[in-house]
Amino acid sequence: MERTDVLVVGGGLVGNALAYYLARAGVDVLLIDRDDVNNAASGRNAGSLHVQLTSSYLDKEAPADAERAVEAMISVLVQSIATWRELSRELDCDVELNVGGGLMVAETDDEMRGLERKAAIERRVGLEVELLGVNEVRAIAPYLGPSIIGAEFCPLEGKVNPLPATPALARGAVRAGARIARHRTLTSFRRESDAIVAETDRGDIRCQRMVCATGAWTDAILNRAGARLPGVSMPQHMNVSEPVEHFMDHLVQHAGGRLTLKQGADGHVIIGGGRPAELDPATGFVRVLRTSIEGNVAIALHVVPRLGHLRIVRTWAGIGFMTDGPPVLGPVPGTEGLYVAVPAGPGCTSGPFSARLLADHLMGKPPALDLAPFTIERFAGI
């Protein structure tokens, strides 16, 4: 039977970041994944680094009721940008980090009023944001179309390339002493005397602590321990254009529609925004929908007309997972040694810092933020 101190289940951004931080501190870590590193949501997102509340937040009838959760989530997102900046210096490859600021644009007076309400909440919880009128937004983003009448600007937003980032964390973890077992599936687990025994399709693993960093599949695993993690799995699609000369440093979002726009280091324009894709229950694969491609491209052209001459060279889909916004980090009640690690809402943004918070907790160090607002116990009774 294999043995380890910490068994991490899940080879995505959070799992590999957790292995990275633990191994660098001398903890014996084994990470397993039923597939390969970065092969699910962590490698199939658009790489947006969100800090301000997304436009979907404007749809809520009483956002002030959730202000405590907003404060907890934004505190994580702000420190997440600092963590990405550290990793961009530490990792063995360029993760194409660019924190050029984020613009959430508006085309109507109603959308501007929504941004004003949102900005007031964000400022109350300490986030630096600025409302821009039409002339101000044109001055910093001349590429925007004539229908844009204003925007909310957050200087901490930007983008990273998710394709090299997670593998770089995995390599860093291995160099520090972690072990990674690809194509190894957790089938069950049990508490046995002073340890957890994880049963896999390639033999049992005895560990002192086991962390579920499995994103949309976390609830199914925790159910085996009698725990629940309510959330929504969201198959989503993205597009990328052919490369063009660099013209856009910002992460661009829309206050009234599903859109994220940013330009990669190689000139490609990545178009996302959470439009739906379709999960095939028979195969488990996610496929894109023509209606989402057309809708996504249409709003992108409306916001940035100069994209009109570019071709879409690739479109793809992944599965996002959302709970109530803040991360879910810490022990799972009822099973000693079992932990959960789900990042805050924008998982690409918050994944490494969320992992760092839990790593510090597992090592007995005071985390940078109190984990009390992030425990799974907040879902008790749901």
| Number of distinct beta strands | 20
CATH class of the largest domain reads Alpha Beta
Poorly predicted runs: 61-65
The share of residues in extended strands comes to: 25-35%
Estimated radius of gyration: 21 Å
**CATH structural fold name of the largest domain:** FAD/NAD(P)-binding domain
Helices, by number, come to 8
CATH architecture field of the largest domain: 3-Layer(bba) Sandwich
Q: What is the percent of helical residues? A: 25-40%
Structural class: alpha+beta
Q: How would you describe what is shown here?
A:
The protein is α+β, with helices and mostly antiparallel strands. It folds into 3 domains: 2-43 and 163-230 and 325-379, FAD/NAD(P)-binding domain; 102-155, no CATH class; 232-322, D-Amino Acid Oxidase, subunit A, domain 2 (D-Amino Acid Oxidase, Chain A, domain 2, 2-Layer Sandwich). The chain is 28% helix and 27% strand. The chain contains 8 helices and 20 strands. Strands 1, 2, 8, 9, 10, 11, 19 and 20 form an 8-stranded mixed β-sheet that branches. Strand 14 (260-263) and strand 15 (269-272) form a beta hairpin. Helix 1 packs parallel to helix 8 (347-362).
